[in-house]
Amino acid sequence: MKEWEYISGSEEATQSLGKALGEICIAGTLILLQGDLGAGKSVFARGVARGLGVDNSIPITSPTFTLMNHYEGHLDLYHFDLYRLSDADELIEIGFDDYAYGRGVALVEWPDKMEDDHAAALWLTIARIDQTQRRLSFLATDEHHQQLLQCLIKQTEL
């Protein structure tokens, strides 16, 4: 496992880090976002979408009432919000595994509802430090996501 922590000083910096990640994602990437309401999960997701080439004119919003939004870019983004998920079996019904390990990038808010603490993924916990600062704690649990995280770390050092 590989871990990394990043302190963001603004919403723009959080979105920029998400964009940097989106730019280096490959098909089959699974990003699991954890954090309290208002921590910045959707801001980070917006950045990932822009990095994947989703047009700037398309609003990126949390799919709280639909479970998933699909955005087309050079890689498709499947943005899940499981906050209102009542049963993990619902994920099977919507074909979650096809999206999560398919030809696009899957980004999941509230992954604890999946009931899978060991998913091969890039886990990200966003915590509010103060009004503007956020602590982004990354954990890559398999080789693919460890390499992705290593590339992201190198990009932020430039």
End-to-end Cα distance, whole Å, is: 24 Å
Rounded mean pLDDT score: 91
Q: Biggest sheet: strands side by side, in what order?
A: 1-7-6-2-5-4-3
* H/E series: EHEHEEHHEEEH
Supply the helix-strand structural class: alpha/beta
Using the CA coordinates, give the radius of gyration. Answer: 14 Å
Helix count, DSSP H or I runs of 4 or more residues: 5
The largest sheet, given as strand count, sense and whether it forms a barrel, is:
7 strands, mixed
Strand and helix layout:
Blueprint: E1 2-8, H1 11-24, E2 29-34, H2 41-51, E3 68-71, E4 77-81, H3 89-93, H4 96-100, E5 105-109, E6 122-128, E7 134-140, H5 143-157
Parallel strand pairs: 2-5, 2-6, 4-5
Antiparallel strand pairs: 1-7, 3-4, 6-7
Helix pairs in contact: 1-2, 1-5
Textual characterization of the structure:
With 158 residues, the protein is of the alpha/beta class. Helices cover 32% and strands 26% of the residues. The protein has five helices and seven strands. Strand 3 and strand 4 (77-81) form a beta hairpin. Helix 1 packs across helix 2 (41-51) and helix 1 packs across helix 5 (143-157). The longest helix has 15 residues, at 143-157. The mean pLDDT is 91.
Characteristic terms for this protein:
158 residues; alpha/beta; 7-stranded mixed beta sheet; 5 helices; globular
What can be said about this structure in brief?
This protein is α/β, with parallel strands linked by helices and 158 residues long. It is built from five helices and seven strands; from the N terminus they run βαβαββααβββα. A hairpin with a 5-residue loop joins β3 (68-71) and β4.
